[in-house]
Structures are given as C-alpha cells and as structure tokens.
Predict the structure.
Amino acid sequence: MKLIGIGAEAELFLTGFLGSKAVCKRRSRKAYRIHSLDALLREGRTRKEAKIISFAKNAGILCPLVLHVDLPRNSIFMNFIDGKLLCDAASEL
C-alpha cells in the first residue's frame, strides 16, 4: 500500500483489491481519546460512511464503489477514481 493522503480522521492508501486499483481509507487511533471511546467512534464512523457511500451510489450519484469494509481495522476499500483531489480543485478557484 502506498500512502496518498492524510486527513484529520484517516489516511488514504493506494492499493489493489481483487486485481483492481483501489483506495483504502483507514481511520487512525487518536491518542488523546479514551481507548474504548476512540474504538467506538472509529467503528461507528467507518460503518456509517460505508453505508452513506453505498446509498449515494445506489441513488445514481457519481462516487466510489465500496468494495469491502474491514471494521476491526476501521478501513473502507473503494474503487480508485482517477482525477483531482477536492482540496486541489478547490484551491484553483
């Protein structure tokens, strides 16, 4: 896996999944939080994000396809979409 981005809640990795180019979004542990609370927050947010992305995809919105959700590792695997990152596109405005 190759690190391609770091955000406030997660790291993005370029990887492969079943022979296709994919992105893995992994929520990182926050050392300042109580461990049990941090685990609940990361799992809940990972679960909700995967459901929202899947709902949007089924509604016809152009977004990544959720390929796999790994709750023990708080990771979402999605198909890779080539293009500009939102932060890069916004900075051009």
